[in-house]
TrEMBL record:
Keywords: Bacterial flagellum, Cell projection, Cilium, Flagellum, Secreted. The keyword Secreted applies. The keyword ATP-binding does not apply. InterPro entries: Flag_bb_rod_N, Flg_bb/hook_C_dom, FlgK, FlgK_helical. It comes from Priestia megaterium (Bacillus megaterium). It comes from the Bacteria. PANTHER family: FLAGELLAR HOOK-ASSOCIATED PROTEIN 1. Residues 8-38 form the Flagellar basal body rod protein N-terminal domain. Residues 102-354 form the Flagellar hook-associated protein FlgK helical domain. Coiled coil: none annotated. Pfam families: Flg_bb_rod, Flg_bbr_C, FlgK_D1. This is Flagellar hook-associated protein 1. It is found in: Bacterial flagellum; Secreted.
Length: 507
């Protein structure tokens, strides 16, 4: 037989359950703008009916309902959308890093404009033509020297600026490694907090949100796979447990964070004296930069430079700096060689126009006009030794060698992947490749961001707090709470009749 106060208990359970739902709605509304927050819902279940089945059960006509209870408070989240979002985030991180690096490079190279290296070469070419037409004019020779200085300054400016940006990218790359290790530490701390809560039967939803936010962050830098391990004790069936984070590589997964042992395998980079990455350490594992998986970290390593499997330095900025050095080295050596074959106004030959450059590395910053040329414009060897003539002043100046020098753009040959090409052709291919790479990076970055945005929109439609929906739920649970409270009032009146009204007939 049920208790006299059975109804009161049922009404109380109803009030408690609706109150829990209203408190959860309040929590949702408070965190409507909190990054990474997932809306929560109270799961309501009927309380076990009375009496419970058994040999000694009371002889009632049937089971009487005992009300409702709030069983759990769960997050509304779709793990499939989380996986999709992180997959797209990896691509966004990689292409964003490449696009940013190439955008800065395009700004430095400044082609095609009137201030780029190509335009400076044009002006130098025109100045040599003027000397070829007027070999005895000191003014034309002075302009040629000034234009040559502009060529050297432009080469130096471009190379120095590229190295400065490359240094910034190397710093950003090192910061990215620090961020990854910091994220692993934070995920490990949240794992431990979750492990302390779950065995008591609770669902630490806010800790789950924080961990998912951190996993979203780390997926920007590299692809990771997740493996969940249930907590021991009295953990809820819907608890998530601790997470093990693994880096996905072509040679197999590498554990970054072991959720069971809480061990972290931090990432570190080994670099050479020029800060080019030679290896990536993950705990005891070592990976070559070329085989490291896609993500922001890989994009920054490729942009700032690394040592490939063949032992050569490569990368977006490294290649452009090397190309400029190659151009400067071939240009100066060819120009000096032809200039030394000519004759100065004073009849001297074997005079170098530029200071000698003995090695390609750093050649772009080492173009300096020879002191002898700067001291006297007559030392420009504009005449050819074979046809030099006395112009009546005892000087040689037929301009034929200057005519040969003016052809440097087509005569200087540089080895490229397609064989020897002219200086013009080489520079055009370098600038063209940079533009193609930048367009590709921007296009794929845009595509990845579009896909990421679409997935994020679907994810938000599932997990984000809708204030309209919360208001509707608030009214729904408020009415249910009021109804339960009215039940209490009604049962109180019933009990009043029992306590104060019964047994008074004979008085």
């Amino acid at each position: 037989m049920s208790s006299t106060f059975h109804g009161l208990q049922v009404a109380k359970r109803g009030m408690d359950a609706q109150q829990a739902a209203l408190y959860t709605i309040g929590h949702n509304v408070s965190n409507a703008n909190t990054p990474g927050y997932t809306r929560q819902r109270v799961s309501l279940e009927t309380f076990p009916a009375y009496p419970a089945p058994g040999m000694n059960q009371t002889g009632t006509a049937g089971q009487i309902g005992m009300g409702v209870e709030a069983s759990t408070v769960e997050r509304i989240r779709d793990t499939f959308l989380d996986t999709q979002y992180r997959d797209e985030t990896i691509k966004v991180g990689y292409w964003d890093a490449r696009a940013g690096a190439l955008e800065k490079m395009e700004e430095i190279m400044n082609e095609p404009t009137e201030d780029g290296l190509s335009a400076v070469f044009n002006q130098f070419f025109e100045a040599i033509q003027d000397v070829a037409s007027h070999p005895s004019e000191a003014g034309a020779r002075s302009v040629m020297i000034e234009r040559a200085e502009a060529v050297g300054d432009t080469f130096s400016y471009l190379s120095t600026s590229l190295k400065t940006i490359q240094g910034d990218l190397q710093n950003e790359r090192d910061v990215a490694v620090t961020q990854v290790n910091s994220l692993l530490e934070q995920i490990n701390n949240v794992n431990q907090q979750i492990q302390n809560v779950e065995p008591n039967g609770y669902l630490p939803n806010d800790l789950y949100d924080e961990r998912d936010r951190l996993l979203d962050e780390i997926s920007k830098f590299m692809p990771v796979s997740l493996e969940y391990t249930k907590s021991s004790g009295n953990a809820s069936a819907t608890s998530e447990g601790v997470v093990t984070v693994q880096l996905q590589t072509s040679q197999g997964p590498i554990t970054l964070l072991d959720g069971k042992t809480h061990q972290i395998n931090a990432i570190s980079l080994t670099t050479n004296q020029d800060s080019y990455v030679t290896g990536i350490h993950i705990g005891d594992e070592i990976r070559n930069p070329e085989s490291f998986p896609q993500g922001k970290l890989k994009g920054l390593i490729e942009a700032s430079g690394y040592i490939d499997n063949s032992g050569n330095r490569t990368g977006v900025y490294a290649s452009m700096i090397d190309d400029l050095d190659e151009m400067a080295y071939e240009f100066v050596n060819w120009f000096n060689d032809k200039h030394e074959q000519g004759v100065t106004l004073d009849g001297e030959n074997g005079v170098s126009f530029f200071n000698e450059i003995s090695q390609k590395e750093g050649a772009a910053t080492g173009i300096v006009i020879a002191d002898k040329i700067k001291q006297n414009t007559n030392n420009i060897a504009a005449a050819s030794s074979a046809s030099s003539e006395d112009d009546g002043t005892g000087r040689k100046g037929d301009g034929q060698n200057a005519q040969l020098l003016s052809q440097f753009r087509q005569k200087v040959l540089i080895n490229s992947g397609n064989g020897a090409v002219s200086l013009d052709g080489f520079y055009q291919s370098v600038i063209g490749q940079m533009s193609v790479d930048a367009q590709q990076a921007n296009r794929l970055k845009s595509n990845s961001e579009t896909l990421q945005g679409a997935v994020e929109q679907r994810r938000q439609s599932t997990s984000a707090v809708s204030l309209d929906e919360e208001m509707t739920n608030m009214i729904q649970f408020q009415h249910a709470y009021n109804a339960s409270a009215r039940m209490v009032t009604m049962i109180d009146e019933m009990l009043d009749k029992i306590v104060n009204g019964l047994g008074t007939g004979g008085r």
